Amino acid sequence: MRMRPFTALVIPFTAVLAPFIVPATSLCGDLYTYTKIADTSGPFDSLSNPFGLSDLGEVVFEAQLTGGNEEIHVGDGITSRLVVSTTGEFSSFVYPPDINNSGTVVVSGTLDAGGDAIRMFDSVGGSALIADTSGAFFSVVAGNINNSGTAAFFATLDAGGQEIRSGNSVSTTLIADTTGDFDSFNTGSGINDAGVVSFWTMLDAGSAEVWTSNGTTSTLIASPGTGGSLASIAHSINSDNTVAFVVKPIGGDQELRIGNSVGASTLITTGGTFTSGAAVINDLDVVAFVRPAAIFTTLDLAQPVITTGEMLDGKIIAALDFAGALNNQNQVAFHVWFNDGSEAIYRATGIPEPSSLLLAAVGLMGLLGCVGRRRR
Hints:
The chain contains two helices and 32 strands. By secondary structure, the protein is mostly beta strands. It has a single domain, classed as Methylamine Dehydrogenase, Chain H (7 Propeller). The strands form seven sheets. Strands 1-32-31-30-29 form a five-stranded antiparallel beta sheet, with no helix packed on it. A hairpin with a 4-residue loop joins strand 18 and strand 19. It is globular. The termini are close together.
């Protein structure tokens, strides 16, 4: 019996193996590939640091147009959609937007009519108001949005004082306020799918703490102790109510730690400097953080996700920024400035270990061998 030509087997092999082949232009370092989400080669004059990254790999970001307007977009490296722009009710956006796994985006902005508003926009163009300054609030700024469509947000009051709340299109829930021991809050609050919010606060006594609360039960997560300090950075909270934070004990080095309501916090790494910006944790307990000129995750504390001075898409990275865009696929989104003055937003994805690739290739070879034998 005549065998089928060997080339007939080569085509399906390469087609199946293609997902494991990394284009050279998107490879930087040994452990990651990089997908460009947006750049300033087209209508965008400048870009803002991405804050939100869904588990589907969608990145939400703010862009400034050459004509002066601002827009918020969602992109995954293949497609992109406009969420909202300043040609409508918003005159400007005041905090980076976030996105959940349904593609719903939460946006904070200043209104043309005056005052602030927080709106959420779904993936098909619908929108709903979460909070605005037409009532008791003097200003409002959203943090994270969870997969139920509830966002954590910070508010200052007309009567004085501050609040942390969670809310959706139906109602809002008071999480914490400054009528007691809390003197002020950070705007970057996280929220998980159970509705538990994480927040940074400065106490009346003058020290900082990190707390979690659902509006009924509140838990102290971190306190630096007398003479210590706790970085005021963007915080996230995972499904186990665990929060990542940077603390500096008196007389000691800065420490990156994670903690929840169960026992003492866990030291991740110490020494050197952790840059203000973000220390975030996902549901797999992977932490992403920033050191000077580099972004790291706890998947490999020795190998950065990206650093300045590296070449990406043929350009040298002059500076980079990270606002906490980490998802449950362990992908990271970040903003870079190149040495030619251009900007871009990328999503970094870890490359499978060589052993995983080898096992996949061996499996495919065996499968193709079986196909060849069947066709004899």
